[in-house]
Amino acid sequence: MGIFDTVSDETIRRGECTDIYFERTEETLSAEGINPHVVMEVTATALPDTWATFCGLSDVIALLEGVPVTVDAMPEGTVFYKNEPVLRISGKYRDFCRYETAILGFLCHASGIATAAAHVKLAAHHRPVYSFGSRRQHPSIARMIERAAWIGGVDGVSNTSAPKGIPLVGTMPHAFVMCYNNPEEAWRSFDRHAPKEVPRIMLSDTYCDEKSESLRAAKCGATAVRLDTPRSRRGNMRSIIEEVRWELDAHGYSGVKIFLSGGVTREEIIAYRDIVDAFGVGGSIANAPVIDFAMDIVEIEGKAKAKRGKRSGVKQVYELSGGKRTMLPVADKMPQGAIPLIEEFIKNSAITKRSDMEKARANVLNWLKSTAASEK
Ligand code: PCP
Fold first, then answer.
1. What is the helix (H) or strand (E) element at residue 129, kind and residue range?
2. Cα separation of 171 and 259, whole Å?
3. Could you tell me if 158 and 132 are in contact, meaning their C-beta atoms sit under 8 angstroms apart?
């Protein structure tokens, strides 16, 4: 046990972060000498929106390497719909049943965040969106949050524990501005000390209204002003932003951009995307509802079998021309020109393919591009 209320990697890998009913299942089946070969599929029968983004597979692969199972899945970053299997595990039930808790936890949480990030990014049109929400969740999962947000399409993240390669973006907290006698001193000090490549985005709402502080920040060399006014004090945010834009333009600072953060929702992004240049989004991504995945047996000892409410038999999901999809029994003939979306990642306990974070993100961005084009 560590000093925080977290579970170690080793404990999760040993299958000791599980629900007690799996331990009882294992003990009872073992005492009876029962251990059928099963195929289990992970599906969501409902989604927060019409489509979702699959994420969290890399952790499932890390968990199941060395466990005597075969794992097939959609690659991370694949867009999926309700009832489509995103992952399939084949093996002797007792060999992996205790891992269900962690497998679903990895997938439900990361897919929820990647899905929210993708929807937020779509809503922002071409405006950059940055993930600022690691502070909204337990710090032990900050890396997962930033990875999932990046796969979901955000343009940068703020937490320093994010996987290498993801651009780190951050401006300054109100506390920093308050450490000086006035905002000008703070902004000038930031300008003197921040690395050259860091954009001069000055927080412009610490003491005064957004219009006057933004103008003062522009005079101090801001390349952008950040408005982070809490919802409780906002008033009509659209008018405030329009006013800031007007005054900046009127005083010769039309190149100074407007960056909005602080409780920003998808609806607000849609409402302000024509007048805001970039968004910092915390809770609307990091606190995303989880994807309600379930893991169910669909085949036992080679025979299709499922509980009520679930579809029996092993399936494949195909992408057809024109972006259409179809789900068929895996033994059925592949439709002409179709692309199978479920691929092998582990065969008999050995990894055959690893998850690629950048490919996953590229896949989401391609999807967003085609979706945005079809919405026009
Ligand atoms: C933080 C920061 C970001 C916020 C969080 C993003 O706000 O300014 O804009 O998270 P959200 O979308 O969930 O609000 P504060 O903690 O209010 O920042 P500060 O300490 O600078 O006042």
1. strand 129-131
2. 10
3. yes
Q: What is the pLDDT of residues 147-204, one digit of tens each?
A: 999 999 999 999 999 999 999 999 899 999 999 999 999 999 999 999 999 999 999 9
In a domain, residue 315? The reply is: yes
Q: Provide the domain limits for residue 221.
A: 124-286
Nearest CA to ligand 1 atom 22: 174
Say what the pTM is: 0.96
- CA atoms within a 13 Å half-sphere pointing along the CA-CB vector of 356: 7
Q: Give the mutation target among 176, 228, 232 for probing the ligand 1 site: most ligand atoms within 8 A of CB.
A: 228
Q: How many domains does the chain have?
A: 2
The DSSP code sequence of 248-300 is HHHTT-TT-EEEEESS--HHHHHHHTTT-SEEEESHHHHTPPPP-EEEEEEEE
Which atom of ligand 1 is least distant from the CA of 133? 10
Query: Does the CB atom of residue 145 touch ligand 1 within 6 A?
Result: no
Looking at the structure, do residues 313 and 348 belong to the same domain, yes or no?
yes
In a domain, 1, yes or no: no
- Nearest in space to 20 (alpha carbons), one of 90, 127, 97: 97
- Which CATH number fits the domain that encloses residue 162? 3.20.20.70
Contact 80, 45 (CB under 8 A): no
Question: What is the position in ligand 1's atom list of the atom closest to the CA of 173?
Answer: 21
Whether residues 231 and 340 fall in one domain: no
